Amino acid sequence: MDAVTAFREQWNLPGIVDVHTHFMPKNVMDKVWRYFDSAGPLTGMEWPIAYRHEEDVRLDRLRSYGVRAFTSMIYPHKPHMAAWLNEWAVEFAARNPDCLHTSTFYPEPGAAEYVTAALENGTRVFKSHIQVGDYAPNDPLLDGVWGVLQDAGTPIVIHCGSGPAPGRFTGPGPIAELLTRYPRLRLVIAHMGMPEYAEFLELAERHDRVLLDTTMAFTDFINDAAPLLPADLPRLLDLQERIMFGSDFPNIPYPYAHALEAVSRLDLGAEWVSAVCHGNGARLFDL
User: Fold this and answer.
1) In terms of Cα–Cα distance, which of 109, 132, 114, 184 is closest to 24?
2) CA distance 128 to 245
3) Dihedral angle over CA of 148, 152, 157, 160, nearest 10
4) Band of the pLDDT at 4, cuts 50, 70, 90?
5) Residue 82: strand, helix, or coil
6) Which of 223, 246, 265, 255 is closest to 45 using CA atoms?
7) Residues 138, 69: Cα–Cα separation, whole Å
8) For 13-23, what is each residue's pLDDT tens digit?
9) pTM of the model
10) Spatial CA neighbour of 249 closest among 8, 16, 23
11) Sign of CA dihedral 169, 173, 179, 182
12) Nearest-angstrom CA–CA distance, 129 and 101
């Protein structure tokens, strides 16, 4: 029995909902992997990709783990890229019905229009990467995007914390401002907002439509650089219904099972593990 299956049986999980996995056009994924290959000098840590396989192998691996639903987190780093990625995502989701159709955006003229088109094409979740995109979430060119997404109630997985390396626009301050302007946004704070866990937990406590994903948080790989303080553990329990499992598959430097074990070893109970690894994502996406 593999470690993930053993984990599911131990915690009596009907499956896993993983809200933070990456599938991209091959040329884009290759560039992302080259970035991580150079992550040592960029972030001070080596970052070997654990699941550097062809797309079909990666899909089979997730399904063999009992992952019931997953995402295709795509993100642009320059103008005129997001709409093209969204077109690719339509075809990918059509081929893979267990993928939660994912789209993205960038601060540029016409962004609200292609985001609206993505919603009409069946997008169920968006990805925003403040660090890689190097853009301000409060850029006026995004006002239309946030308005459309707030009205639609569609989740946006947003990498806005300052890990693994800070960006010009990362951190809780810009997101607090964004939520002041668009308080009904359904943001999913990627990586629990690491390393600013406490500040992003506070935002979730203040805004009942804000969620968080566990991607890479609590793992051995990141704990020394970005540990969760013991004082914040009760807050995770209080926010049990708004925390969802994310893995960052395939771009992780450890086995998939370790990401799950990192969640369970917080020792917050079987109900918490079940809610985070399956129930909350299943409810959010009506699975």
Assistant:
1) 132
2) 18
3) 40
4) very high
5) helix
6) 223
7) 31
8) 999 999 999 99
9) 0.97
10) 23
11) negative
12) 17
Both tokens of 217, joined, read 């948080």
Class of residue 120 by CB neighbours under 10 A (exposed 0-12, middle 13-18, buried 19+) = exposed
- What single DSSP character describes residue 190? G
For 32, the token pair is 């992302």
CA dist., res. 182 & res. 146, Å (int): 7
Amino acid at 263: V
Whose CA is closest to 111, among 79, 155, 150?
Answer: 79
Model confidence pLDDT, tens digit, residues 45-78: 789 999 999 999 999 999 999 999 999 999 999 9
**Contact call for residues 8 and 264 (beta carbons, < 8 A):** no
Using CA atoms of 220, 226, 227, 232 in order, give the dihedral in degrees to the nearest 10. -130
Exposed e or buried b per residue across 65-83, where buried means at least 16 C-beta atoms within 10 angstroms of its C-beta:
bbbbbbbbbbbbbeeebbb
